[in-house]
Amino acid sequence: MAGKPKLHYFNGRGRMECIRWLLAAAGVEFEEKFIEQPEDLDKLRNDGSLMFQQVPMVEIDGMKLVQTRAILNYIATKYNLYGKDMKERALIDMYSEGVEDLGEMIMHLPLCPPDQKDAKIAQIKERTTNRYFPAFEKVLKNHGQDYLVGNKLSKADIHLVELVYYVEEMDPSLLANFPLLKGLKARVSSLPAVKKFLQPGSQRKPPMDEKNLEEAKRIFRIK
Amino acid sequence: MAGKPKLHYFDARGRMEAIRWLLAAAGVEFEEKLIESSEDLDKLRYVLSSFLLSKDGSLVFQQVPMVEIDGMKLVQTRAILNYIATKYDLYGKDMKERALIDMYTEGVADLGEMIMLLPLCPPDQKNTKLTLIQERATNRYLPAFENVLKSHRQDYLVGNKLSKADIHLVELLYYVEELDPSLLANFPLLKGLKTRVSNLPAVKKFLQPGSQRKLPGGEKSLERARKIFKF
């Protein structure tokens, strides 16, 4: 198992950030090769490194893996963050997918046409408050344990806590009525590896600003 | 493990069809509770949310597909598919095979999503969308899978053994063919996989008329979906 995992993406959160969080939480050091020009992406494509011509791509254990979920599932399995059996894995998958549904809405917000933005933000807030956060709060309430599944840290907790940070960036008041989610966030954030990742100077990426958005559009040739 | 899996969805392909294919290919009999009105959906949501008060940890995001299986009420298509695949040994022999299966499955899902959403596309955008699907199928997805089969010359995508990746891909090939049969022209190994998987007894049975396989949704089906899901 030669070397650290190597992440190929642009220098922004996008679809790679959840992978950075998971590796960091697992205490795994990783390298990043940033795509800075459209030509860098072309090169990866022409090399045959990208099965579907897309990034994220992660070089790990002799494989060039693409597709975010494939990468996350492999990392989670390797570092024991995927539950102890198939039933726990089913719950972890269910929760992870719920996080992803809301996370996807938040991720796409910068790409939203200005005249639709307010409506989109309202929808995100509504879904957070009425669908997603209550569902996760209830899971924690039902079993009263420290983590979502099997009384043990899993990818589901890491993805959810990452999401909670993004919701908080958007509107801190959205967390108000979810004490158990706040507790999970505090608990996971205090784990040594996560605490380190949360500090300035780590490989964690900041929110997308105008400049970052322009860069992404340029690299990925989005109009 | 009492009883057959029970699928909750409406009478169409949508996001449940991949699950029907996988169960069928695994030779697993299943029941379907079809949602026929928005009232049925509301009732289901009510049942699901009151179920949340029990301690079994089942979770709902007020959405379908939902599958009752092995005492769980699972939502989220991928969670359901992964559980079924693990249970019926269609998920490879180790984590590296699982990674390949996941990678291929996600590629299938990306193209499949475009095809599934096409009927919902506004009429003035439909041709552009269709052209994009044809382009992506021809230049990105089908070649990627053809190359996998070419690289190892085995009968199945991963580990020389049938997996969920083969089943999802073959299902997709049927949809691509429905859209435009010429798209498969230059992909002999994919055509071979499609034939091979289609001849497996359980799949052959599922492909016959009268099975639980759902037909392409026409205008009527779309209207019904709009009424039920209120979009």
Automatic annotation (TrEMBL), chain B:
It holds the Pfam family GST_N. Keywords: Transferase. Its EC number is 2.5.1.18. It is an enzyme of class 2 (transferase). GO terms for cellular component: cytosol; extracellular exosome. It catalyses: RX + glutathione = an S-substituted glutathione + a halide anion + H(+). The keyword Ribonucleoprotein does not apply. GO terms for molecular function: glutathione transferase activity. Residues 3-92 form the GST N-terminal domain. InterPro entries: Glutathione-S-Trfase_C-like, Glutathione-S-Trfase_C_sf, Glutathione_S-Trfase, Glutathione_S-Trfase_N, GST_alpha, GST_C, GST_superfamily, Thioredoxin-like_sf. The keyword Transferase applies. One of its GO terms (biological process) is xenobiotic metabolic process. Residues 94-217 form the GST C-terminal domain. Belongs to the GST superfamily. Alpha family. This is Glutathione S-transferase. It comes from Bos mutus (wild yak).
